[in-house]
Amino acid sequence: MQKKVSGTLLAIAIPFFVVIIIPLFIVTLFEVALRIHPQLIDQEYVNYVFGKQTRRDSGIFEYDPDLKIYFMKKNFYTTMYANGYVWDHQTDARGFRNPTAKETSDIVLLGDSFVYGHGVNQDQTLAYFLETKGYSAYNLAQQGDNAYSEMYMLSQYGLFLKPKYVFYFYFTNDIKDLFMRGLDKEQMREFIKQPMESISFKESTNKINFPNTLSDKFYIGKYLKFRKLVLDKKKKSQSVDTDLGWKFTKKAIEYMAYISKQNGVEFVMVPIVKDTFEDYQILKDFSSEHNIAFVETLDMNNENYYLQNDGHFNEEGHRKMAELIETYLQTH
């Protein structure tokens, strides 16, 4: 009888051990390994784990699903991480990376992560260096911004500051970012067909963010979300239509120049040159054709101006760009 009971318990215990205990042990081991050394996956996963470029409670963004635009949270402080670089992120009362929310500014800066100051502190950015040169500058740039969101920022926030100059900074990933976060293709085509005078933007009234979940507390949970994000990005990347993206971006540039001129503001094109001469020439020719002011930036094609293993401006890159902007202001 005792042998029969022991045999029955053993018959139950072995499947339990195989189905429950061993997988639980493996999962726990994987969790511990990722906590100790998240680089076991890759650097992109590390960026995901420690980065804050999300629309969750702990992230820097809110999202308006009606406008399809990301907005940085107002008066928000956190420590940022990407590719081994750590920096302080602090926004003003409007949600932009400035010490204070100015009421007026002679210069407004539009751009993406380069102008925002990815990888460096605020006192190492283009806006800061322009201020130290005696210019009043306000930074409207956000990570991931593109011609669509930049149009919105200029029309809703930039012109309110009554600037003398709007400097629009373009980088080659702006085309791709239109498709990664922005309007769908049909909305792009509709925008391209619109007359300038009929284009308008409504105020954002539906900004949302997503609460952190239990899975966010575990590195395995983060890994599963990371894998899904990678697949989603890959799928979106396959939908990129470069020709459509350029048509939309050019129309957006025309519109920003149009509303700037209506408000007595000089709109200035600034291409960020980093092995992107084709884009540089496209924008130079386009600016000439449409009588848009243009800053020569070929001097920026120097690896000493960029963060190693990252590609964004380092402190010297921001300082050099400020010098180029100052040269433009002094000669125009």
General description of the model:
This protein is of the alpha/beta class. The chain folds into two domains: 2-36; 40-331, SGNH hydrolase (Rossmann fold, 3-Layer(aba) Sandwich), CATH 3.40.50. It has eleven helices and nine strands. The strands form three sheets. It has a five-stranded parallel beta sheet, sandwiched between helices. It has a two-stranded antiparallel ribbon with strand order 1-2. Helix 4 packs across helix 11 (315-331), helix 6 crosses helix 9 (242-262) and helix 7 packs across helix 9 (242-262).
Short recap of the structure:
With 332 residues, the protein is α/β, with parallel strands linked by helices. The chain has eleven helices and nine strands.
How far apart the termini lie comes to 101 Å
User: Radius of gyration in whole Å, from Cα?
Assistant: 24 Å
Q: Looking at the structure, what is the overall shape? A: globular
Give me the strand/helix succession: HHEEEEEHHEHEHHHHEHEH
Q: Can you identify the CATH class of the largest domain?
A: Alpha Beta
Helix residue percentage: 40-55%
The CATH architecture of the largest domain = 3-Layer(aba) Sandwich
Percentage of residues in DSSP E strands: 5-15%
CATH superfamily of the largest domain: SGNH hydrolase
User: How would you write the strand order of the largest sheet?
Assistant: 6-5-7-8-9
Annotation, overall tally of beta strands: 9
Number of domains: 2
The overall pLDDT, averaged over residues, is 92
Class from secondary-structure proportions: alpha/beta
Q: Which topology of the largest domain does CATH recognise?
A: Rossmann fold
Supply the number of helical segments. 11
